[in-house]
């Protein structure tokens, strides 16, 4: 479960970063 949470968090962070740059 911890790994899934970390993966989801990093995925959301990457998505937010792309949105911010866009």
Topology:
Layout: H1 2-21
What is the tally of beta strands?
A: 0
Proportion of residues in β-strands = under 5%
SSE arrangement, N to C: H
Characterize the overall form.
rod-shaped
End-to-end Cα distance: 31 Å
* Structural class by secondary-structure content: mainly alpha
**What is the share of helical residues?**
over 70%
Please state the CA-atom Rg, rounded to the nearest Å.
Answer: 10 Å
The total count of helices amounts to 1
Largest sheet: none
Low-confidence stretches: none
Mean pLDDT across all residues, rounded? 71
Overall description:
The structure is a single chain. This protein is an all-alpha fold and 22 residues long. 91% of the residues lie in helices and 0% in strands. The chain has one helix and no strands. The longest helix is centred in the middle third of the chain and has 20 residues. It is rod-shaped.
Tags for this model:
22 residues; mainly alpha
How would you briefly describe this protein structure?
The protein is mainly α and 22 residues long.
């Amino acid at each position: 479960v911890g790994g899934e949470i970390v993966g989801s968090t990093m995925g959301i962070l990457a998505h937010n970063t792309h949105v911010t740059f866009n």
